Amino acid sequence: xxxxxxxxxxxxxxxxxxxxxxxxxxxxxxxxxxxxxxxxxxxxxxxxxxxxxxxxxxxxxxxxxxxxxxxxxxxxxxxxxxxxxxxxxxxxxxxxxxxxxxxxxxxxxxxxxxxxxxxxxxxxxxxxxxxxxxxxxxxxxxxxxxxxxxxxxxxxxxxxxxxxxxxxxxxxxxxxxxxxxxxxxxxxxxxxxxxx
Amino acid sequence: xxxxxxxxxxxxxxxxxxxxxxxxxxxxxxxxxxxxxxxxxxxxxxxxxxxxxxxxxxxxxxxxxxxxxxxxxxxxxxxxxxxxxxxxxxxxxxxxxxxxxxxxxxxxxxxxxxxxxxxxxxxxxxxxxxxxxxxxxxxxxxxxxxxxxxxxxxxxxxxxxxxxxxxxxxxxxxxxxxxxxxxxxxxxxxxxxxxxxxxxxxxxxxxxxxxxxxxxxxxxxxxxxxxxxxxxxxxxxxxxxxxxxxxxxxxxxxxxxxxxxxxxxxxxxxxxxxxxxxxxxxxxxxxxxxxxxxxxxx
Amino acid sequence: xxxxxxxxxxxxxxxxxxxxxxxxxxxxxxxxxxxxxxxxxxxxxxxxxxxxxxxxxxxxxxxxxxxxxxxxxxxxxxxxxxxxxxxx
Lengths: 196, 298, 88
What we know:
The complex is a heterotrimer.
Chain A: H1 4-8, H2 18-44, H3 46-53, H4 58-83, H5 90-117, H6 126-157, H7 167-192
Helix pairs in contact in A: 2-6, 2-7, 4-5, 4-7, 5-6, 6-7
Chain B: H1 7-23, H2 35-39, H3 50-54, H4 62-86, H5 99-108, H6 110-123, H7 125-142, H8 147-175, H9 182-198, H10 200-215, H11 226-239, H12 258-292
Helix pairs in contact in B: 4-6, 4-7, 4-12, 5-9, 6-8, 7-8, 7-12, 8-9, 8-10, 10-11, 11-12
Chain C: H1 7-26, H2 33-55, H3 63-86
Helix pairs in contact in C: 1-2, 2-3
């Protein structure tokens, strides 16, 4: 018999397994180091970086942000449904997250091909090296995350995940939120940061 | 203490030792007609208790095991101090350097390079000895027939090859710098980096095998904590970016860049001592487990 | 579970609005570069914090982990803005 106050107090815990947060934390720190190095390189030639930034399409970037935010929301709804044992609602939310992940990949691919068509590649200058590297490594994260979401979706259709068996989807969801978090910084850094 | 502690097994181990001593064989007991000795092999039948099957019947030299585990930090110290600091590789001389600049760099640093690279080349072998110690701990979780412990030992040992050969290439470049053209010097510099960096996947196999096995440890307090295994996965992932080095000479993916050098190398540099710490600690824990179940043999 | 009444849906709507403000509002030439860049990065930090606390559920995490992750947008913004102001 728990006291009423004890019922309301949730003991502090990390979603999924503790170890995955080591990986998420490490990835966050690594990207922070990349942002710092980008800004260092930008300091060396701000005019070049500004001129190159102008060739980026911020509409693409903004839409990509909205896509990932929606994807994160979708997977968060899935986790909430799992916690409440609404097993039949889980697949649609996970599928939503996976499909929006796929949409991001399509959007990025179109953007990249447009750049290549204009003759802009990672070798063009330092800014483009950073643009392709940062968005490219992020895109690899999106591909990996979308694969994991697809795996979770397949299992969720069999009703595998419940409030007492939710470690795997929680780990995948947490990783997916990281992917969203990183883009929240990458987008303004590359696309919106105008020169003084 | 006689193996197993029962009179029959005491007799059998004594017989094994007698045979080993008289024949000079310290590794393989010869065939005997003794039934007890025959069943205590690594090919235990399935109904043998897993405790007996997990443990090799041969005496465990815990002290040697621990010494080998310590060679991991020794390796790291050698590479970090000698190759990293003395040979000025943190960060490396740029890939964008011209042949003339490369030759001049090797000329300026000739003596420190001769000292640092030669010693580092020799001490690289400590990574191999460390890998053997790790494999033995992994066998306690996977069983002595496990493939991942073998993959780990191979991965760690083969890692020594590109490291040693690279040291030898740069050592040769330094040794011969005054006889070689700038173009040859540039080539030797790149030869070393391409070999050193692109052979990463051998180490990746080692790291993956270690992370998989230690994450499967069923002990309540794992021999190696999950945080270290997950850091292993971070290191594993960070290595792939290095494949870009043939294509760029500046920026984050160049072999002196923030991704291909600082992140790829330092995730590995952090992983080695973190793992080594728990491997060193695991050995007395395993010895205690062996003693508690009466399986220690002298 | 009514999706529309969930906290995470409110958070999502807020994030969408903030994204539109930075992408199609603050980036316009109406604002001086300093105002635009500071505004954009502060908003990015706020968005990051919502993702960390509400989506990643770190509001309920052990305090040291929560603090470490909440520090990330602060540090990243400080780095980006610090360098921006130091760049001619």
